[in-house]
Amino acid sequence: MAKSHVSTTVNGDPVEFLCDAPETMLDVLRNTMGLTGTKEGCGTGDCGACSIIVDGRLVCGCLMLAVEATGKQITTIEGIGAPDRLHPVQQAFLEDAALQCGFCTPGFIVAAKALLDRNPDPTETEIRYWLAGNLCRCTGYDKIVRAVQHAAAEMKGQPA
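RE: above sequence
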């Protein structure tokens, strides 16, 4: 079977790759591009570990075919913040200890960023609904919700 040629943008950089028709965006990110921050949890779109932002929309990387990336703007956890300049969501997760083992954390951070890009002042209920597609097996969700509220306040210039 012939591979498909895909031109897209990942974390602000133009990229091209070849992929097989059934290959997912998660597979290409992790195996072709080496962007391993996006995790594979369930492989069925139920856990949110593979969350990425595609043209401003939160998407499960395990459910998106790589050929669908043509012409899209994709943001992964690697494209959010930098080691020396964390995104407010990343900083809030650290300060509020909103993680335990960390496996699900990239998905939560990508999902939280997508929420705050769309709604900079979400209520607690909106945060809980938005993050309902992201699962954490280690800990409760209260610290994660508080971290998103904290980040929202920081991004509005109102430190929590």
